[in-house]
Amino acid sequence: MAVVQYWSMHPLGPWAEHLRYHDVRDPVEARELYARPRVSRLDLPVDILHVDFDTAAAHGISADDLVDDDWAACQDWAATLTVPGILVPSAALPGTESLVLFGPMARVPYGAEPIGPIDLPCDATADMGAVTPDLLRLVRWRGSTHLGLKAWRAGGPPVPTPAVSYPAP
Question: Which residues contact 85 (CB under 8 A, 6 or more apart)?
Answer without folding.
Answer: 44, 45, 48, 49, 99, 100, 101, 102
